Amino acid sequence: MKLRVDYRASLRLVGTVLKYLAVPLSFPLVVSLYYGESVMPFVVTMGLTVLVGSGLEQLSESSDIGAREGFLMVAATWFAVTVVGAIPFLIEANGIPFVTSAIHPESTLANPVNALFESMSGFTTTGATVLGDISFDSHTRGIMMWRQLTQWLGGMGIVVLAVAILPELSVGGAQLMDAEAPGPGIEKLTPRIAETARALWGAYLGLTVLEIVLLYGLNVTGFAPNMDVYNAIAHGLTTMPTGGFSPEARSIEAFSAAAQWVIIPFMVAAGTNFALFWHVLTGEPKKLVRDTEFKFYLGVIGVISAILAAVLFLGDGLVSVAPSGGTYDQLYLEGVRNAIIGGPESSLRQSVFQVVSIVTTTGYASMDFNAWSAPTQYGLLFAMFIGGSAGSTGGAIKIVRWYVILKSLRRELFTTAHPEAIRPVRLAGRAVDERAIRGIYAFTLLYLVLFFVSTGLVHLDAARIGLQVSVLESMSAVAATLGNVGPGFGVVGPMGSYLDFSNSSKLYMVLLMWVGRLEILPVLVLFTPEYWRR
User: Fold this and answer.
1) Are the C-beta atoms of residues 353 and 340 closer than 8 Å to each other?
2) 407/401 Cα distance (integer angstroms)
3) Number of C-beta neighbours around residue 343 at 10 A
4) Nearest to 440 by CA among 390, 484, 369
């Protein structure tokens, strides 16, 4: 059987991306040098990725690819960079015989499955973690910065970045960006796709730098004493990609209210279609305020935040007794209850922060929302399925799909009462193609089926090893990994981790993060015979 896919051309481009992955690895290397730490985890990884990448480039002389090769290249690239990204974690924890000794052998990332999980969570901007101890006592500052950087690289998309800066990838850039970009489609902003990629990454970089400057400014002015340069850079690198990793064990709860308020608008921006920022910068700000998806996105965040803020303010949104063996104790609970109940600023801030973080799939936490009551937690679980805008760095189903689904359902109700009527579904004044609507329904159904099936599998596997997790905890773990959200509830809450799950469950969640970031179909299509046959 002759293959219909030129896999050699796809793997050649994968090799190109891997070869240039050595460049961003130099940043945590510099951090390690500054703090007097071992640089061997990064030196070895840089050498390996250049060697493997250069080898893959020899498989083909052609860079010409079509849609099929684009799917293969994107899916393979994301998995390949995840494997490379895990290598520094493994070297720090295990060392290399006759080359370098282990730096932190106590690290939970000594387990290759855990290292792969952490790397996939980083590059897919999920933010779920298997670190047993998030501190500089168990990890070097260089390794922790690499963990942050994986999310920044994955946010706007590794392949989109490659299309923007590597001329050999610009030939098939349209196919690659369509396969990788989150959401139903990507708007071509300029005549050349490479220029579009550069425009998107330019907006992304600009917002990242702006946030870092503002966060460090809070430190200089005394409003955020522990937001030093390292923390400002670290959190700037994981806000805009809606990543959620933090070098602080308590996430954003470790910082002042002022820092939390500054981070909120950047999370909102990260969940917005980046093409809109390009229009603003090119003198068309009205496109932002008039965009239907953007207005619906802000409206959803506003409504959910207002409801949860009222519930928290009245005291019904918090539990009254801390469970034994949980991620918080009674003293912590009494502190948050005193601050939130009857406190307008605190209740509003906690509600808005958590809703924005979950809807945009950032995954930061300004408090341990395991202390929230069951109804408010189900509200957050619902928010995990919403997602950011198409063309944003957010995950999950995406707000534009929900908007089209609601409009089409309204259309069905209307045409049921008026069978003779012809009423197209419109988005931003333009009729949405019926094939696109069917595609949205198919994707959403596939997403929900995968969620429920995966919940059952994860819950059964937890029972197999004797891990006591509730159905809500299993649901949140799957929703958080498939939707690239990060934290869930219970053991996988914002101050917990996925460490207690079995290796098989963690490997399955690696798969969920991978297919979730690429929106399921570009990965699943690779496993169909029709994709490969001529």
Assistant:
1) no
2) 10
3) 16
4) 390
* CA dist., res. 476 & res. 385, Å (int): 10
Query: Which tokens is 424 given?
Result: 């197209």
- Which one is predicted more confidently, 384 or 518? 384
- 109, 91, 118: which is closest to 510 by C-alpha? 118
**Nearest-angstrom CA–CA distance, 425 and 420:** 16
Helices (H), 124-192: 141-156, 158-165, 173-180
Query: For the segment 274-318, what is each residue's pLDDT rounded down to a tens digit?
Result: 888 888 888 888 888 888 899 999 999 999 999 999 999 999 999
Question: φ, ψ for residue 431 (rounded to 5)?
Answer: -70, 135
Measured distance between the N- and C-terminal CA atoms of the chain, rounded to whole angstroms: 8
DSSP per residue, 473-493: HHHHHHHHHHTT----SGGGS
Using DSSP's 3-state secondary structure scheme, residue 97 falls into coil
pLDDT, tens digit, 9 for 90 and up, residues 220-239: 999 999 999 999 999 999 99
Tell me the angle at which helices 229-239 and 193-220 cross, rounded to the nearest 10 degrees: 140
Give me 1's structure tokens: 């059987």
The residues spanned by each domain of the chain are 7-277
- 199 sits in which H/E element: helix 193-220
